Amino acid sequence: MSASPQAAEASVTLYARIKDELRALIRDGTYKPLDQLPSESDMTARFGVSRITVRQALGDLQNEGVIFKVQGKGSFVARPKTDQDLSRLQGFAEAMSDSGHVAKNRVLSFRKLAADAYVAGKLRLEEGTEVCQILRLRFVDSEPISVDISYVSAELGDRLKKADLATRDIFLIFEHDYGIKLGNAELSIEATTVADDVAGHLRLDAGAPILRIERTTFTAAGQPLDFEYLFYRGDAFRYHLNIARQPARQ
Amino acid sequence: MSASPQAAEASVTLYARIKDELRALIRDGTYKPLDQLPSESDMTARFGVSRITVRQALGDLQNEGVIFKVQGKGSFVARPKTDQDLSRLQGFAEAMSDSGHVAKNRVLSFRKLAADAYVAGKLRLEEGTEVCQILRLRFVDSEPISVDISYVSAELGDRLKKADLATRDIFLIFEHDYGIKLGNAELSIEATTVADDVAGHLRLDAGAPILRIERTTFTAAGQPLDFEYLFYRGDAFRYHLNIARQPARQ
Fold first, then answer.
1. How far is B29 from chain A (nearest CA, A)?
2. C-alpha distances out from residue B188 to A99, B75, B135, Å
3. Number of CB atoms found within 10 A of residue A46's CB
């Protein structure tokens, strides 16, 4: 992209050096998680380089997940993220306790309503059938991390009404209290911006990025049991998984 | 949340009706993908309801992925997303061709550089070892959908230099041209905002949400082969997968 290979080489070295220095300042705790970094002009002056070089270094660190930018505010140090293994179908509290965290839930609402076409289709019901909608705000180590909107049949909803949804996963209640065998779940995962209601619960600014999941959980017999929208804070959560390679065609 | 159950019931019905009407207008093509919806005040007037009710309906449609909001601009109809099965370790072109799409790549840069501590760790090399970095912009049906930053050993890089990276997946080149058996990959998946350089390539506004993936691919013998940062447009791409339930502990 540059006219002279030598100039390009020098600029690569310069911005690599600034990246390294910023990384070191974050590692040694000079800048802590969620701290704001100095402004671009401060860094330009401090490092004695052009603004383009500073921007390149910051852009790289952003791509690497080390820092994040907030429009009109500046660059901040990313905080460590809660990790969940996506290759296992687990309740959230179950997964969090496996990794040494404490998960709690707050039930925001619990009500019956007529299933719209999409939810009804997922649960293989007629549109308009009465279903139970459960809104939960989920906390990890006392920080709000996700909003879960779950739809189950009205009958299951009546049973869940008496359950301890503040500390227990719905999956475990199904399995251990109701003797329902879970089979599998179908998920979709995408990145989007948070809607205002969810932003309020998760204490996010308008326009903040979130992971949006749709999940349908089936019984071992293949009957849909539970359809959910899950919204995870982009700045606080990530999935990880391990995939094996199957033979490919040429 | 409301003082009177009857008032709450009426408002649920009202906003459910507006959701249904908007969904119908999107389904019948009155509002097409990426079209802007009327403003909140237009809808308030058109439906004869309060702004709170309109906002609730729009918030729900946003949570359901039917529409998206752009800060300071308004609400827009979401476009259909390209889907990739996350339970299979596949090259992107391979996966796209499986679902009837045409994938192409543009190599943005191909260079050698000293691996930083993070990249070196992922490839199990000493920090500062020379590696090859390949930046590719990936298109589905002529639309830019992702930026991939791949790191391989300098030696593999020299071989890839001669390969057709515009139409072929690196995975397939490894397997079919070099006879390297792929084993598995480790991934992390999170939602974040796009960095400026990636935004430019993907034609996204500043602050747009993206899926950020880190992927390390291993040979069948367990040797790391390829470490990548993948950035997918949040508005154009989603993953899906199917997970089986393993027996849980109480």
1. 18
2. 16, 30, 19
3. 12
| Nearest neighbour of B234 by CB, restricted to A83, A109, A190 | A190
pLDDT at A246 over 80: no
Q: Which residues pair with B138 in a beta bridge?
A: B105, B146
Q: Cβ neighbours of residue B14 under 8 Å, at least 6 residues apart?
A: B49, B53
Whether the predicted pLDDT of A164 surpasses 90? yes
pLDDT of A154 strictly over 80: yes
What does the pLDDT read at residue A177? 94
CB pairs under 8 A between A and B: 217
Amino acid, res. A112: K
Question: Which chain B residues touch A93 with a CB distance below 8 Å?
Answer: none
CA distance A163 to B71: 40
The residues, ordered by sequence, that sit 6+ positions from B43 with a Cβ below 8 Å of its Cβ are B18, B37, B54
**Residues near B132 by beta carbon (within 8 Å), at least 6 away in sequence:** B110, B111, B112, B151, B152, B153, B154, B156, B157, B158, B160
Cα–Cα nearest to B115, from A19, A142, A131, A157:
A19
Q: Read off the pLDDT of each residue in A119-126 and give the average, rounded to a whole number.
A: 96
- Asked if residue B103 lies in contact with residue B70, where contact means CB atoms within 8 angstroms, the answer is no
**Cα–Cα distance, A61 to B199 (Å, whole number):** 15
Block residue for tokens 């070295």? A13
Cβ within 8 Å, pair B185-A243: yes
Contacts A6 to B, Cβ<8 Å: none
**Chain A partners within 8 Å of B24 (Cβ):** none
Q: Find, in chain B, the residue whose alpha carbon is nearest to that of A195.
A: B59
> What residues of B are in contact with residue A182 (Cβ under 8 Å)?
245
Cβ-nearest to B195 among A63, A91, A196: A63
pLDDT, one tens digit per residue, over A41-59 is: 999 999 899 999 999 999 9
Spatial separation of the C-alpha atoms in residues B59 and A197, rounded to whole Å? 7
Average pLDDT, chain B: 90
The stretches of A131-228 forming alpha helices (DSSP H) are 154-160, 170-172, 196-202
pLDDT number for residue B1? 42
pTM for the model? 0.90
B204-207, Cβ contacts within 8 angstroms, sequence gap of 24 or more: B204/B233, B205/B70, B206/A71, B207/A69, B207/A71, B207/A207, B207/B71
Nearest-by-CA chain A residue for B12: A113
Considering only CB atoms, B63 lies closest to which of A65, A116, A195, namely A195
CB of B192 closer than 8 Å to CB of B210: yes
**Per-residue confidence at A155, pLDDT binned at 50, 70, 90?**
very high
Most confident range (mean pLDDT) of A168-172, A223-227, B65-69 is A223-227
